[in-house]
């Protein structure tokens, strides 16, 4: 998907591609896999499929396509995620209790919305295109976000099953880990945040100045081998390494390793989208929470970078070609091709926890209307992640992107890269 | 299904019929409907289908069929309900988080078990038949119990969906309610409990003497019209009518009517297996808990009967012919044919709450081995229900049957018949 | 306290004695000990002191003493336990969050109520005495119930403190346990329940016939030595011995011994009102729940007696003289004088769990008015205990008394006596 | 208390003053008031009294006073708040279940520690003074922090009591609110954080550069009159004003006004340390959470200031003389003297929520050893407050001070001052 759409034709092509990419991700699913919700944080696959359609229906078709008739008025509630300005929402932790609409009906709903969207896009006059294109673009990037969530939620949903069913049978890519080196940055007053005409979410704006002191950043994310050293040195049993909230979570949940790791006959394995396999020591560690990442950095005598440091150092790098493919790139779990130059891994292996709380940028204003609830209201209690993961669509990755999750969250493809002062 | 099986042929016929009846109940289901679990008390339909097969596999095939090979050893854990002596169990409240085995795989599991069972039954010598027939019979009655649970759980699972999907499109039967009259009984020393050679669960034994004082019993269960009078008289808002635990549940859960009732434009409707329909005032009230039933009886200046009173008065009555059909009879919700003689309703409309706690009969002994966990360990905290409901297989109904649920449970087809002293 | 009061003078004497006995129990308390509430089931000592006064104030002074002026109208809510017909109640689990009224103010409240009660009792004409005496008697027996609860709650409240503070410094009585023998009873139609003019709670009525099959009863409660044998035989680790609800509680709570037991240097101690002391193997086991008692009986190849069996066998025995003292007898924990004849222990060592659910007797009617909430509304989900404990006032013990607690409750002085058929 | 202690004599004087100030705060308490804990976030007064002593005992007496003998070794666990490096801790939410040690024993513990501390301080050689003075100073500032917590926890503990008992009978100060005006700041690169030799907590360091864009700051905190306008405009019922986490909290807790507000006959009152009184419209609003403050700012078309903006604008202002008194100043609730110049209110009325997450300053290093757990491990999930409240000891207030609480917390004296860009 191109990130800047100039006219209706571009929009139509991009829309069609984004929608198809979502469905392509479901090619290996059984009907039953679409239904389940193994914890409140994740959603059933069919909910994702429907919700992204609801987004187009609510903000574009109902508002701007004369004569549009919804498939079912009750979907307005069922597939509203959290938009209070739109109306009530079905209880999030109970999404997995709904067998209907069926998977077929959800696909029919998608087709119905697609039909409406194409009618809308094809019929738009130039000024309407200018007016609506931002909303269409938002809907497509929203769809891309859910492509990643669909995969991470599926991985979690499958992981709780003692049968350990694989999402697909692709082998995991492997490559030796590059040695970890440090690159230094002088700091000073730098600019961060989104600039230009390309699409970006509101939370990436406004572009603004930031003051950085001199710092150094590791050449690549922390590897499984390094994480294992932390574990073997008692990292999970040493409270003084941990933030208080992290230690409480680790004790309450019994953490002794990253999520999805399990020991089989004394050897560490992890559950991946390709099933249960031995941990690849060269791959970046994944499925660690912010509080684990912070404890690791503490143990390593380092710290996490701030999001401004990260963006200044890595945000301008080109996306490596090997990651650019239509739809998702490398939809596999924590076992990714590591480039010979560690910096390639800035984009596309694991989301990298930063030390920055997810807060509004100076001068931030949420969008007008209901879409203003998209990002702004979540700017509390979460931490920023940067980069992108193996489950992020390549065209969805950019240097100013701010991802965010709660400090104990572990079900995303989340890792870390360490930093230090001076 | 005949309740006494004489030889292998009878057993095979009965087994085949019982297994087919279970699958027939699923004819109208979508694949997705098999997967969900809308609260911890209910199970997914595919779990029921698998668990009853696990029962035969565990207690007959593994133990008695030489060379039997299970489909998947992990099913031993996944489909064990609560038999600690057999081994560990997958967490009950999380059964709805499992997409695998798929519905197809579960049917294949059923077919595999059926194949084994037929091989076992066909190959049995006479003395083996005598030895194993009780276990086979137990397995079939167990399957019948789950036929009812499959329906009640499905009803609940569908009910939480705002789309209010119907299980089937059969119209609900209707008939005028007979006037409620009282029939008196002298009491004295009577005998209750199972006698004879026909099948019965261990909790119906031993047959024993009970002392009854004179009492009277209503000619039919309480109707929806009568329940509505209770509601309109403030029954749900008058704490002095309620047991303490009942009042607490009613406040906590916000009860204002039976489960599944909702007011639409000022008129009471209820969700049934045929969808959302107006409440039929002539039908017996259903989906009320013990504590609601007790409050009603208190309000009516009456009481619930003891299980011994119920069995003495109604346990010997013949099952009305119109209820006898293969498989289930009247798999519909609370809108059942009412005979002209109210006593017909003793069997087959709603389970009737009694005032008796579910405790072991004098002299009760649980069966030896793991099947001893079938009933005995649940003899605490539950109340006895008698009769049978529209979802009970006709051949599963008998006068000595002891059903049991917790005092606040409402998702079964449960109603009440009032009694009084003297 | 005499149990039948003939005239105002008797009533006054009995009232004065009952009230004084309550306060005598608090002689060793620090002010702080009156305030705390270590779990929702227990109440602070000062709440008990106030609530029993509220009972007299509410049902006698406000209703029958012209010109009575309450100390504080807000006490009507603060000290109402559960009488919905009287009005709202302060949240029970939060009683321990109230520092006011202070202990001194509570004693002043008691004195104020006593003054009113004496004015009422002294001023009553004969017919008023006849009319009000039952309520006064009820208030005094209510006060006696709370004397026991005050002690058991104090014991629990002190037990959670790592300092293990003792309630008093009296040594525990000791005596060798008599050998356990069996006494047989023929059964037949017997009469149970309260008869005569003496005081009894409404739940002990009406006296009625019961049919008993032949049974045998142990000569004394189970001892600590016997319980230790159960423990050492894996009783707490064998699920097949347990009721399902019991096993769940044992796992959830991590039970490995009775409440208050702890191992010190490999030797079992228990926390008593006299502090932490070694377990006396000869004493009756105490602080076991119904579900533990049931598992023990199962393990011992026996069962618990029904409450009718217990009453028939032991209810008519005289109370041993050594237990009769004013106020409480033996306010100590599980280390009681064992008579040479085990039957003496029927009264006064530990409450004995029966196999009977706490349900209304045939023909039971709750009292009219608010005091009707005293007992009836709790007749669900609890099990009957018979006898009396070392914390029960001697004059409060009688053969028809029905005590009741929930199956997992352990903080009372509760033990068991086993029975068997035939 | 002077904030820089030069020699043993100064230290002794400061120590003595700090300890006496704590006890002076308890002059009006009943014994019972010391014991209770009305929610997990607050602690009993006697726990505060003991814990601050434990701090001196643990970090100074045990480590540095030869021959020191603790009163009770078990206090090491009971009064350890959260120092994992020191050892285990008694469960925080259950502090209110402990009646022992009694209040008298706690005061004896304090005296014992004081005796030890004086012996230590009087006997120190010069070089030891230099070495230990920082720890002594830390202990005294720690004691001051708990002086404020003691008051805020007491207020909360008393507030849940329907008797609404007052802490003291001092009248609340009143004064007209100054008009709200805006003062503009140019921003640029500024310095924030602690500098110099005076005492400061580790979280105020290191002093570092920050880049501020132009901003404006209100001349005084938001008043109750202004808050009432927010309420009357539907502020608590408009989800689009709120952060998602805030809206969830507001719905779950039923917030309709600041904590402690209640309507009496249509007129707003609030519970204060002086009891229940009408809300003073001129006083700064208090007892609002971060999420309420943020919603208010949103409603007002403004925002909260960052902590750097706050410190740059207000941190250098002198503390007004009228606030400087030994011990606490104005220990009253939200009804404080407002100066004619609103800027006076920067210090000493209410803590002011900022938009800054509580995170480590660039270059922050926690102290070595167990005291390193003092601040650093809480740098996650909380928001920074600046200024100081009516319950903050005057000598404890300074411009670089970083207070921090969780976004939904309301039991502190917390208000807000609004800011805007440019």
General description of the model:
The structure is a homotetramer of 422-residue chains. By secondary structure, the first copy, chain A, is an alpha+beta fold. In chain A, 31% of the residues lie in helices and 12% in strands. In chain A, strand 5 and strand 6 form a beta hairpin. In chain A, helix 2 runs parallel beside helix 4 (103-122) and helix 2 packs antiparallel against helix 5 (126-159). The first copy, chain A, is globular. Chain A starts with 7 loop residues before the first helix and ends with a strand. The B-C interface holds B 82, 84-85, 189, 208-211, 213, 239-240, 242-247, 290-291, 294, 355-357, 359-360, 362-363, 372-373, 377-381, 407, 421 and C 82, 84-85, 189, 208-211, 213, 239-240, 242-247, 290-291, 294, 355-357, 359-360, 362-363, 372-373, 377-381, 407, 421.
Quick summary:
4 copies of one chain form a homotetramer. By secondary structure, chain A is of the alpha+beta class.
Descriptors:
three-stranded antiparallel beta sheet; 31% helix; homotetramer; 9 helices; alpha+beta
First-last Cα distance of chain A: 40 Å
Query: What is the global morphology of chain A?
Result: globular
Global Rg of chain A: 21 Å
Helical fraction of chain A equals 25-40%
Number of helices of chain A: 9
Using CB atoms under 8 Å apart, which protein chain pair has the greatest interface?
B-C, 36 and 36 residues
Order of helices and strands of chain A: HHHHHEEEEHHEEEHHEEEEE
- Average the pLDDT over all residues of chain A and give the rounded result: 89
- The fraction of residues assigned to DSSP E strands of chain A is 5-15%
Derived structural class of chain A: alpha+beta
For the secondary structure, the number of strands of chain A is 12
Strand order of the largest sheet of chain A: 10-9-8-11
Largest sheet of chain A: 4 strands, mixed
Report the oligomer: homotetramer
């Amino acid at each position: 998907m191109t990130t800047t759409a100039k006219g209706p034709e571009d929009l139509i092509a991009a829309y069609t591609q984004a929608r198809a990419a979502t469905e392509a991700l479901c090619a290996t699913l059984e009907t039953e896999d679409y239904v389940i919700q193994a914890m409140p944080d994740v959603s059933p696959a069919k909910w994702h499929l429907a919700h992204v359609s609801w987004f187009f229906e609510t903000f574009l078709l109902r508002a701007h396509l004369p004569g549009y008739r919804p498939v079912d008025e009750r979907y307005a509630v069922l597939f509203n995620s959290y938009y209070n300005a739109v109306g009530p929402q079905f209880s999030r932790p109970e999404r997995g209790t709904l067998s209907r609409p069926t998977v077929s009906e959800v696909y029919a709903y998608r087709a119905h919305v697609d039909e409406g969207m194409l009618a809308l896009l094809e019929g738009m006059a130039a000024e309407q295109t200018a007016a609506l294109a931002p909303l269409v673009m938002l809907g497509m990037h929203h769809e891309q976000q859910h492509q990643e969530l669909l995969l991470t939620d599926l991985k979690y949903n499958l992981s709780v099953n003692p049968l350990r069913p694989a999402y697909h049978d692709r082998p995991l890519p492997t490559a030796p880990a590059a040695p970890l080196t440090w690159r230094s940055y002088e700091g000073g007053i730098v600019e961060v945040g989104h600039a230009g005409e390309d699409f970006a979410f509101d939370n990436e704006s406004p572009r603004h100045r930031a003051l950085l002191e001199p710092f150094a950043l590791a050449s690549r994310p922390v590897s499984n081998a390094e994480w294992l050293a932390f574990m073997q040195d008692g990292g999970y049993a040493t409270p003084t390494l941990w933030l208080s909230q992290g230690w409480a979570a680790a004790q309450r949940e019994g953490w002794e390793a990253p999520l999805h790791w399990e020991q089989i006959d004394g050897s560490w394995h992890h559950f991946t989208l390709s099933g249960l396999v031995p941990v690849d020591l060269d791959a970046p560690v994944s499925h660690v929470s912010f509080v684990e990442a912070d404890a690791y950095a503490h143990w390593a005598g380092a710290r996490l970078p701030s999001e401004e440091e990260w963006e200044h150092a890595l945000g301008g790098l080109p996306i490596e070609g090997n990651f650019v493919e239509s739809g998702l790139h490398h939809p596999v779990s924590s076992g990714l091709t590591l480039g010979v130059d560690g910096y390639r891994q800035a984009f596309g292996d694991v989301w990298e926890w930063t030390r920055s709380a997810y807060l509004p940028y100076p001068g931030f204003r949420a969008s007008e209307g209901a879409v203003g609830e998209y990002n702004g209201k979540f700017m509390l209690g979460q931490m920023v992640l940067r980069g992108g993961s193996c489950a992020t669509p390549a065209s969805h990755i950019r240097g100013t992107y701010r991802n965010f999750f709660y400090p104990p969250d572990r079900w995303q493809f989340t890792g870390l890269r360490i930093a230090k002062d001076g």
